[in-house]
Amino acid sequence: MTFILKMAWRDSRASRKRLLLFSLSVVLGIAALVAIGSFTVNLKQAIDEQAKGLLGADLVVSSRTEFSAPVLEYLAGIDGEQSRTREFSSMLVFQSANDATRLVQVRAVEANFPFFGEFEAVPAEAPAELRTGKQVVILEETLLTQFGVKVGDPVKLGQAVFTIAGALKKVPGETAAISTFAPRAFIPFGTLEATGLADRESITRHRVLVKLPAGRDAEIIEREMRARFLGERLQFSTVAERKRNLGAALTNIEGFLNLVGFVALFLGAIGVASAIHVYVRQKINTVAVLRCLGASAWQSFAVYVVQGLALGVFGAVLGAGLGLGLQLLLPVLLKDMLPFDVNFFISWAAVGRGMGAGLVICFLFTLLPLLAVRRVSPLVALRSAFIERTGAATDPWRLILGVVIIAAVTTFATWQARDWKIGVGFTVALAVGFGVLAGLAQLVAWAARKFVPRGLPYVVRQGIANLHRPNNRTVLLLLALGLGTFLILTLYLTRTTLLNQIDLAGEGSRPNLVFFDIQDDQIEPFTALAAKNGAPLMQSAPIVTMKIASLKGRPLEEIMRRRQQSAEPPATEPGAAEPPRAENRRDGPRVSRGMLNREYRSTYRSKITGSERVVAGTFEGKVAPGVAVVPISVEEGLLRDLQIGLGDEIEWDVQGVPLRTKVTSVRAVEWRRLESNFFVVFPEGAIEAAPKTFVAALRTAKPEDSARIQREMVAAFPNVSAIDLALILQALDGIFSKVAFVIQFMALFTVLTGVIVLVGAVLNGRYQRVRETVLLRTLGATRRQLVQIQLVEYAILGVLAAVVGGVLSIGGNALVAHFVFKMTPATPPLLILGAVATAAAVTVVTGLLTSRGVTDHPPLEILRQET
Amino acid sequence: MSVESILKVERLTKDYRTAAGPLTVLKEVSFDLVAGASLAIVGPSGSGKTTLLGLCAGLDRASGGTVTLAGSELGALDEDGRARVRNAHVGFVFQNFQLIPTLTALENVLVPLELRGEGGAAVEAEATALLGRVGLGARCDHYPVQLSGGEQQRVALARAFMNRPKILFCDEPTGNLDGDTAAAMVELVFGLNREKGTTLVLVTHDLDLAKKCGRIIRLRSGAVVSDEVVLPANHANERELGDSES
Predict the structure, then answer these.
(1) Helix axes A783-815, A458-465, angle to 10 degrees
(2) A862 touching B (Cβ < 8 Å)
(3) What sign for the dihedral angle of Cα B208, B209, B210, B211?
(4) What structural domains and CATH numbers belong to chain B?
(5) What is the pLDDT of residues A775-804, one digit of tens each?
(6) CB contact under 8 A, B111 and A377
(7) pLDDT of A639-679, one tens digit each?
(8) A292 Cβ under 8 Å from any chain B Cβ
(9) What residues does each domain of chain A span?
């Protein structure tokens, strides 16, 4: 053992810098795993510590409609404190900013809001002022900067004028991202009446926050209320549920980010394996001499295994250190997405897991080329021709190690994703990418040998010949560059796919301003005012709110009861547990509670619009008044979610009036067009008499027009709200950018690892090629010729790897778009071409930069240094 | 003085498989060498000299016949078993020196004993003395790349004697050296051989060098064409050993 350690140390002398460079390949992958792992532990602890603050109460009961008397009575019977809130969207007029308007989420809260957690604003006394019940408002901080208003300025909400008390900093359980589409405005509950918006026909969420006395279990109350008020469409949130949801979301995000980190580690491990492969080939003579002097195969093997292990340990320690530094940075990156504060501490278990995973993967990949050491014949010391006989194609240990590596990668991916299908899918995707690139490398080497025209200039022929000659870098560079391009470009394309789902509002002649909550008696003057302002309505649609009363002849209450029973049979009706379960199995997967309970905002019209098409049945645009069963058209996704088909009946509760309908057509809707699209469309002649509001869309030529028209409309119709689609697009892009930034930040690890692997590969090639380069130099090759030879080689490899990586990424993006987002993939040719060109250019430049020393110095000097 | 066989070769054959069928590079070679003797194997290029040396030292497996080295039948041993025999009984000097480039001269010399787990100040002193004996006492900490060809070969010679071998195999030990350096090297090889009482097996093209050995085996096309005993004045002490063979 002493000999092995001594020899490993001494033998590494001349190559320690190189070995350290190899180890850098895995540093970033390990850093990513350690940072994500340790940060997730921080997050989990923060969730545990701040659990109550996540909700602001022990239990929150909410409803889309006013709570019924029995519900209010039940709530009154619960011990502890309660606090009511009401939430809806409305337009806010900034009087001190030239009457500019903005859609906001109004939160009317009682004085005791919230029970737990911090409600923070600037100035700090603003929440206290709000609690006094004065006509003051706390606004989202962005609104103050956007409209140039300050504390003390007046704003108008509905018919009431409020004074700005402060800028919102933090509310329990809500992230800053929640305000992206519509900023929040907190007002005292008692001022709601004055706004005139309290009883309007619009989406309002009523909530009761409950603070329970010690010993009362919120989840028991939730179960009781669910059972007792089945038809009330109540929604519940408890601290435990919030924790579970957050924990699950966190686990998914952690799994995803870890997989991204693992890709970097995997790429690095390939780099290490390739580098060690070259390293071992240079050590064959040393091994042969040791074997001549009496070293056993195991001893010689162990010398290099020790070096490989040391390399892995160094990489792991460096990676862990870097990872902990990165961990400090993550809360800053994720600031807007976190609903709570996170305290930094090192989770040694996470550090151990990251280092362990890195070390194991690195070591396994190192072993693969090292196995060849066992088979080095001592005869090599006598005849170098025997070197070629160390080829390990027939070594059974290689096969075994290959299986172990595949198992390790699959296990790790499954462990991270908590889903064996994703784990296997990830491994298969990597294997396919790997296989395609390795196959391509073989093909390129073969083609380079077979099809090089003799008429080509010498430097070109030499450059092409480098692709297939012994010690070529074709496989390594194609793998490293191709996989790197594939992974990074897939991330970019996925982002483009997501953003492409929304047509730009500024394009073409589509509407860019949508007004909603226009009352029945307002639609005519509204239309006239719009026309007067030079922006006539392009679309308007009536909206009738309704709920499902029965599906396929089964009343909603019965469906809900059976759901309830099958979910918790022992607690409620132990005797009735089995039959509903059996029936449930017959029915297949359950329809979600949300789909059954939700309020449907449907329309009626005589024909379909440009953003939809009928995919089954016949659209019926008109019915005679009083028809018993109304033919309706349902959007295909909803049809799937409700588990119904063409010809099935739905009975609706149209604001108290039952209405039987039958699905006679199914529509595919292009939701990505930000237009007034609907899940359910009725024919004309069926629901006109029901209470309704209108949504109207128009197009303004310039952003200034948009602000002016919004101002005019809101002044004339205070209850009407407007959505500026340009702002929505901006907001969506903002969210995507934030998410994409985090993903790209992680992808950066893969990119940097790719560059390190590339530099390592090129440097290795330099060690391999130095003798022939020097020989060419000695024979009179000019620096220019040597550079040209390398340029040809790197250009071919770079372009091929980038093209194949690009093609693979188009496939990867298509799969992600289809299976994950269920969208049409975007394949912007310019982006792909640009990425491919960049990858190729990076290869050539890196190649030439890392090779430059060889051509700049006298041949003998280089030979003495490099050998 | 008892006469002990250190190397016994019987009907040794080596074939290689080639695309054109089996290629026999050694055909039924037999000889026996007693401890302390010196043997030169000569012959033109491709005659099988290096193959024979490799087989005798247990660096390769024979296709037929046997090699018994220091009492161990090499064919019966696995790769590691043969390595142990080499470590215990064999020293090597190669035409291209074969020093480990990453080790200093002293460390190169130490390798054979360190492989056995031996080390420490005494062993280092012995290695330093050996380097002194070959004239490189002041170059202990130099790496091979910092030494001339002749110096490297002298380090290789010191390394070959470090494990006090019973038999020393030399493959063209002067093949890469100029005339004066080669002559100095020959002096050292034979001098140390005498001092340490080691058996010497030498592969060479150089007939003058071969004649310094007590016995010469000539190979052609893998077969022994002659096996002669040389009786120069400087082999007086070997004469009786040579006489006792046959």
Answers:
(1) 50
(2) no
(3) positive
(4) 5-244 (3.40.50.300)
(5) 677 667 777 787 888 888 888 888 888 888
(6) no
(7) 888 888 899 999 998 888 899 999 999 998 877 666 678 89
(8) yes
(9) 1-59+246-418, 81-211, 420-506+732-867, 513-564+586-731
